[in-house]
Structures
1.
Amino acid sequence: MSTERSGAGDPARTLCLLWRDPAAAPKRGPRQGLTIDAVVDAATALADAEGLEAVSMRRVAQALGVAPMTLYTYVPGKAELLDLMLDAAYARMPREDTSGRPWRERLTVVAEENLALYRTHPWAAGIATNRPVLGPGQLAKYEHELSALDGLDLDDVALDDALAFLLAFVRSCAQAAAAQQRDDQSWWDASEPLLARVFDEKAYPRAVRVGSAAGQAHGSAYDPEHAFRFGLARVLDGLAALVAG
């Protein structure tokens, strides 16, 4: 999983690019009909296929059939490109109208929309977003998700806290699912021969009983879908206590 973070580039230049301010248009270099959107799309396709580690200005330029120096006239570097990719992914998320439905159903939809985002773009779950992107995609996403909390007797700070709590849970589920998909089988293949020699079932009776029951129920040591559904219900139960209080 990548350890990249948003907001690592030049803030002024990044905001101009995110909002497609005319000031961000290239003023030098060869004109080849390239657009910022085309650069973002190429970088996103590369990240979807090979992970964020594969995204470099050189690789994106290669995918677009231009020289790397040409690319720099559109986007100053990978840090700014990362914010553009994330905001574009946010902008393209399907947003279901849940008005009139109970708040638990509305928040369940928000959670499922974010999980779908991470399944489409697994790299997005690995980006630290302590510095928000602040582009049109991010703000549209935030506005939409806050609407799922309409009608609850919470102040604005609590509304933000509740949403952040929910989204952090979804992101952790997506990271765990991605790690399992990447490493699970190879880890078990390497571990089983040693465990067969050293594991003493009598020394760990609870671990054996509960672990065996869970493994049989889920078909593996970890079931991402079950973990998401079980955890989401507990998150919503916790928010219900907040709302009731």
2.
Amino acid sequence: MRLSTLYPSACAALLAGLLATAPQAWAQTAQQGTAADAAAAATPSTAATPASPYVMPATQVWDMPSDNGEVYRIFVSAPDKGEPPKGGYPVLYVLDGNAYFGSFAQARWVQDYLPVGKAIIVGVGYPGDKPWDVRRMADYTAQLREPLSPEVRPFAQYKSGARAPFLDFLIGKLRREIAQRYPVNLERQSLFGHSFGGLFALYALYERPQAFEAIVAASPSMEWNGQSILDEERAFRDKVQAGKVGATSRLMVVVGDRDADGDPESARMLAERLEALSGWGLRVRLQRYPNEVHASVPAQAANDTMRFAFTLR
């Protein structure tokens, strides 16, 4: 809606004033500009101010070791003014923090005045300036199956199978550290992971169904390691249907329709299979982005993820 529609009298007066003073103002500006140009021509130019790295407001970063000696870089975006909500701030843990923390932190910061911005983003990454670290393969995946399938053989040189201690670090030592530094709600802890991180997010749901209030698995690499995650899904479904699980995390599956690595059809079928467990309390949502590819899904998903994680239901 145009401003003139809301305030017709004020806009008309403002426009009339501008038109009445415009000739004098333009003449004065022209004279000032000519004088300024002459002064600039007579004064030697000075060097530009040296550039410095940009630091996002309302953020902190530190390195932290796990109990088994692995060092992680922890990025935090938190409100720096006002009172926390009753019970403390909800928290969203974002895997591959070096790559994705910035998108989530910026989205939270510019919405600081809204309920969705009154929350804490914790990026979990690795020391260094690269977006991804090879250590993520160990932290996010199961041990490679033998015999190795052709698609995983090139990766056999890297460590794998450390997802259990990494999950312990996330919901143990790191969660306690965040609670010591910030007023948080320990009942409202959520997790976002993409690609291998999305695969890990599914593992977290199947392995510790009550560890997070909400989980977002974006473009999960379910084809990895001979689709071994499907065996864990079946075991999880059996336990839920047998009444051995109880309350579980809410799950949102995110995928781009042009995502060649995170097959949108596989994501759709996963959501459909797990949605069948709604009678046992599991809540599942599928979020598809028609024009997004594998690498562009996380930035697109930042706001939807925060709404899913931080909106009370």
